[in-house]
Amino acid sequence: xxxxxxxxxxxxxxxxxxxxxxxxxxxxxxxxxASGNQWPxxxxxxxxxxxxxxxxxxxxxxxxIIDRQIDGANPRTxxxxxxxxxxxxxxxxxxxxxxxxxxxxxxxxxxxxxxQLLPLAIFILAVYSxxxxxxxxxxxxxxxxxxxxxxxxxxxxxxxxxxxAIAFGLxxxxxxxxxxxxxxCQDVSFDKExxxxxxxxxxxxxxGLKLSRLFHVLTVLLLCWIGFTLPHLNFFxxxxxxxxxxxxxxxxSLVSHTDLTRINEAxxxxxxxxxxxxxxxxxxxxxxxxxxxxx
Length: 295
Fold this sequence. Notes:
There is one protein chain. By secondary structure, the protein is mostly helical. The chain has a single domain, classed as Tetracycline Repressor, domain 2. Helix content is about 75%, strand content about 0%. The chain has helices at about 1-15, 25-35, 40-65, 70-75, 90-105, 110-130, 140-160, 165-185, 190-195, 200-205, 205-230, 235-255, 265-295. It starts with a helix and ends with a helix.
């Protein structure tokens, strides 16, 4: 039993399962926003969750397999499961393939448009690990992967694409790209030596942090636009946007081009709170709206 639990822990560590917190709450937020003044069907919520977990685990597993030599050479990441030899590559491949199957199987239970977009989603998730080898815009591919998942959550409810769905996806894209730039600042020296690309490597840490702030401003503006265009949103959605703005300001106060010692707090703690907080406020918005309509 202890061996099984240890293996499960290794698999969870391999794909950083706890980081699902960055993506899943926003996908569920999209489901709530798209369902208007009623609750989404429970089976839709279930299949969206399974598709999200499968897709993210597939992407992270593939990333760890592809990057295991790079991770092993980087002092910051050399203790990762594959890089440190704690797990065989074939075991990581098994989890990755099973996760892809879960993503595909779950998507097949969603509307036709989700199924039609599935090959594109798989391509985006798979290509991310290679982009940093030739382009500084890997941050946007990661943002596109998470942003597309929220759009998928929206389509799972409505069966179609809308401007609000695209705007929500773009808000997530810029949010993720912004915090990924911050995260990449700590690897600038290694990336230069290893021939890897990022915005901080190409344009410097100072410019990278400025661009990160710009992208996060765009995130807030896009969320505001959604609030003005969806009539069923109320005070709690405004609180959600306010939370995003306040936490992003706090996030940028933790780092500067001369002090990167609090990157982990800026990356993990702040963005986790943003994701969970936004979902909770949008959920409260939905609860109050439906209670009002039932009176």
